[in-house]
Amino acid sequence: MARYRVGIETRERILAATRRLLGEVGMEGVTLKAITDQASVGAGSFYNLFDSKEAAVFEVVREALESVDPDPAGEGNDTLADLVDAFVLFVTGSTPVARIYLQLAVGRGLTDPVIAARVLRSHRRRVERFADAWRREEPGLDAPEAEARAQTMLAALTGLGLTALLDPGFDMRAHAHRLLPPQPATSVSAGAGRRRRSAHASQ
Amino acid sequence: MARYRVGIETRERILAATRRLLGEVGMEGVTLKAITDQASVGAGSFYNLFDSKEAAVFEVVREALESVDPDPAGEGNDTLADLVDAFVLFVTGSTPVARIYLQLAVGRGLTDPVIAARVLRSHRRRVERFADAWRREEPGLDAPEAEARAQTMLAALTGLGLTALLDPGFDMRAHAHRLLPPQPATSVSAGAGRRRRSAHASQ
DNA sequence: GCAGAAATGGAGCGGACACTCCAATATGTA
DNA sequence: TACATATTGGAGTGTCCGCTCCATTTCTGC
């Protein structure tokens, strides 16, 4: 399916419409009519390109999930601050995607075991990522302690993200930075010149 | 409506059925047929007692929300540990209610501004409650710092609660207790004799 | 025990929804 | 250009859902 150029373009339009609607109306509010209207497409065209409405939603959600997952090819050199900033950016920057992700994780994860398992898997990967960063930051930490700290930190970030999504005025960045371990006094004076190690941390 | 004893009992049965279904199938999965079947009641009886399906759902959700709200009549003497324990108990003890609350807050709060406002209001009340406890614990704290700590702590609890709901094997209590400030060395040896100040903290 | 009101079950209505079908048209290939 | 095949729109289909209607039964105060 979708062999010609026009078909591929239509597919993209449909996915964009679905993505947009998911962010606006939420998981269960997306109707086929809304999608096809938004994408300026007939129902027939839709079903020429997708097996079902669910298939389109699933595709969008898959992409959203992928964009939150820790980069599998990452070299593991991100600092804690990088990871925290990436998380904050994910919530405050790409808000509709964040909404979709949270709606999926909570709205469906709480009732659908398949979704729950999937969400948990990617959550665990992220915990590992944070735990590694902790051990790099404080080499003396033993593994369980690092994981516990990572678990707590990620939980706090999730909670703060939720608040940020509910309350546009909430300063997530400031609160999130409080989670980081206090910096050594030497770097305090760096001021405006301070830079994060990598420009856009994979996360 | 519902003047006779039977009517009141039927009302209770319907609410119980709705509550149960909300926990199992989720917010949008609850159909009228499911409710009336579960409650062994005809559709006519249902509409004799409730204006709409939504009204029943709303009632259940209202009760759920109330049970999370900080006790308005609380004397403000809870310790941080009390509040944390109460939150943990809410999630791990009354799991279906916790599910309903989270589904409401996230599933609908993210798209429905009315719900969002409501959730935020009760959230802010809880933050205040935690901030007060912080200041009681560490009298030197200034107000903004106490609130920031409360905000972070509550966010972490929410995140941990989410994980606990998704992963039944997750030890929420242990992780949650890590959020408390380190205890003075004198009380460490108390061991099994240690008791929380009030048996069931209002929260 | 009687009367009037409340409660009950369930057939059925109207509308929304995901999806099908197909005639008409556009697209790429040789 | 001619052909095969992909794409398109939208009218129509079956299903499900919330809700109404109403004849019948149950309840309770007097």
Outline the structure in words:
Two copies of one chain form a homodimer. With 203 residues, chain A is mostly helical. The first copy, chain A, folds into two domains: 5-60, Arc Repressor Mutant, subunit A (Orthogonal Bundle), CATH 1.10.10; 69-182. Helix content of chain A is 67%, strand content 0%. Chain A has nine helices and no strands. The longest helix of chain A has 25 residues, at 113-137. Residues 187-203 of chain A have low confidence and may be disordered. The A-B interface holds A 24-29, 99, 102-103, 105-111, 116, 119-120, 123, 148, 151-152, 154-160, 162-163, 165-167, 175, 178-179 and B 24-29, 99, 102-103, 105-111, 116, 119-120, 123, 148, 151-152, 154-160, 162-163, 165-167, 175, 178-179. Chain A binds a DNA duplex (30 and 30 nucleotides) through residues 1-7, 10, 31-33, 36, 41-49, 52-53.
What is the element layout, followed by pairings?
Two copies of one chain form a homodimer.
Chain A: H1 5-25, H2 32-39, H3 43-49, H4 53-68, H5 80-93, H6 95-108, H7 113-137, H8 143-166, H9 172-177
The structure holds a DNA duplex (30 and 30 nucleotides).
